[in-house]
Design goal:
The chain has helices at 2-34, 37-65. By secondary structure, it is an all-alpha fold. The longest helix has 33 residues, at 2-34.
Length: 66
C-alpha cells in the first residue's frame, strides 16, 4: 500500500512538472522571441515552482530506489 500511495504521488508530481515545463517553455519563448516582459515574469515564477517540484521528485525518487 505504501508503494501505491508513493506511486500516485509520483504520478501527480510528474504531471505537475510536465505542465510546469510546458508553461515555462511557452512564456520563456515569448520573452526571448518578442521581448514580452509579462511572459518573462510568468516564466520566472514557474521556474521557482519547478525548482520545488523537481526537488520533491528527486527526494521521492531516491526513497523509491531504496
Amino acid at each position: 500500500s505504501h508503494y501505491i500511495i508513493n506511486h500516485l504521488n509520483m504520478k501527480t508530481l510528474v504531471e505537475k512538472i510536465n505542465a510546469g515545463f510546458e508553461a515555462f517553455a511557452k512564456d520563456a519563448a515569448a520573452q526571448v522571441e518578442s521581448g514580452n516582459k509579462a511572459a518573462g515574469a510568468r516564466a520566472r515564477k514557474v521556474s521557482l515552482e519547478l525548482e520545488k517540484l523537481l526537488k520533491e521528485f528527486r527526494k521521492n525518487s531516491i526513497a523509491a530506489a531504496k
